[in-house]
């Protein structure tokens, strides 16, 4: 019964997000993960390469809540993460249309 409630709650939350245009068809893959110096973000839409002009990448350290923002990156380009503190990060990608995708990665 609790699992059924959780599933319905998730479905309702996703519908609300869709109505507010916060869910997109963007898919984000990160490699290598964990990473020391460079991170490659593979951004796709419906399993096809994303062909947007540029995007903003937001790194949020899940331990310290410190946020680092990098702007004007292009799909499939390497991002220098050597200046980030060690830790686990949530990475959010925002394209020029305001669509978002996210994933976790570990900085060593």
* Topology order in helix (H) and strand (E) letters: HEEEEEEEE
Relative strand content: over 45%
Our Rg estimate from Cα atoms comes to 15 Å
Overall structural class, as computed from helix and strand content, comes to alpha+beta
Largest sheet: 4 strands, antiparallel
Identify low-pLDDT runs: 1-22
Helix percent band = 10-25%
| Shape by Cα distribution | globular
Instruction: Report how far the terminal alpha carbons are from each other.
Output: 41 Å
Q: What value does the average pLDDT take? A: 76
Number of strands: 8
Number of helices: 1
Task: Write out key terms for the chains shown.
108 residues; alpha+beta; four-stranded antiparallel sheet; disordered N terminus
Detailed description of the structure:
It is a single chain. The chain is of the alpha+beta class and about 110 residues long. The chain has one helix and eight strands. The chain has one helix spanning about 1-20; strands at about 25-30, 40-45, 50, 55-60, 65-75, 80, 85-95, 100-105. Strands 1, 2, 3 and 6 form a four-stranded antiparallel sheet that branches. Strands 5-4-7-8 form a four-stranded antiparallel sheet, with no helix packed on it. Strand 2 and strand 3 form a beta hairpin. The longest helix is centred in the N-terminal third of the chain and has 18 residues, at about 1-20. The radius of gyration is 15 Å and the shape is globular. Mean pLDDT is about 75; it is low at about 1-20.
